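User: Please work through this fold.
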Amino acid sequence: MERGDFKGGQLAKATVSLLADYLDMTSDEAQFMRDEHVSVVEALPNYPLGAFSGRGIVILAGGKYSEIAATTLGMTRLLGSRLPVEIWMIDRVEAQEGWCDEMAARGGMLCRFVSDYLQDMSAFSHHYQLKIAAIMFSSFAEVLYLDADSMPVVNTDPVFDSPTYVDTGAVLWPDYWKATESPYTPYITGQNGTKATSVPDIQTVDSGQMLWNKQKHWKTLCLSAYYNYFGPTYWYTVITQGGPGWGDKDTFPTALRALKAKWTLIPHRLETQRYDDGTGRGMGSGMAMMQADPADAKEFQPLFLHSNFIKFSVRRLMCDVCIEDPSALSAEQRIKGEEVTFKGSISNRKSNIWKQLNFGIRLFATKDKDGLNDMGRLDTELDMWRVMERVGCTGVFSDDMICQRTRRYLDTTFGLVARWEGGAERNCS
């Protein structure tokens, strides 16, 4: 099934007839898929007792995403998390040379590879199909899943003890828009006995962060795995019709609704973190999504910063012209021996943050005269730069020029030059 072309402007005035026009599906085809879905649900396996244990964090990385994940990993530890972390990639080709050894040496962090569990990877044509595999194959019984670009702003360990998670065992966070699913979707998945006759009042989710108790929701995760395995060819289009968020993210609530499982959608609307417009006073466009802590049902308390636009990789921000790591290249590029380069934001005058990086202006816009950022009195931006300074000055992603530029930005913008261990050894002082 081809991905649709649902225009964003049509979302606000969506009608059942409009939603129905995006899939060329007959009632007989819908009935066939409903019968197939019933067979799949009936065959869903029970939770494998003894296969998993404990709580942990799962991060999907690999290739260029590993540089971004390095910032997220650093934030988890800087903010006090002591939970074990598994960093998942497609295979060892995606791993930056030496990075997994570096993580293991720090303790509590381990690289794992989907290809160790699935012999045939041919059906995985999109990276986000791997999210469900990382969650299910992880060694943990309870999982905090994070995208590489979804970083905590406070210690996340207490989230497993939040009442909503303890009660339901599945916590998801909202995205910006309402669902654009086909009127046939609830019929095919067994939620309704007929094709929908009204526009669904369903909030889409941001799957950059999720909480799962695998024992409570094993069948849900298995059903989501089915949706994702056949996602690019069928389910992603049935669920979103090519609308915003085509991909894995709404396979999770669809599976929960299909099985009538108990789960939590965070009640707080996400907040948009904007970047400063370069003057130090104004508000630019959105750069990231702030998601709330489930422990507080009444007030929005920030827990995650999902950087959906600007990616906080120190190399992507601070290099002049960098050579792409072989782990980030396509198989064809590696075979041809191509050298691929990219320009960092600090050297790209077309970047929305070029001025800020070059003139020592904070990236995060302030919202009042006291200079508080959109996360109140949390100085997440400073924490983030402290982490990126360490990444840029020590370890496998380090580079002397990037280190110098990052420390100069820290000094000019925050009045701080951090002296992480190992920095001087790299002639970066």
Observations:
- The chain is about 35% helix and 15% strand.
- The radius of gyration is 22 Å.
- Residues 72 and 151 are 5 Å apart (CA to CA).
- Confidence is low (pLDDT under 50) at residues 368-373, 420-429.
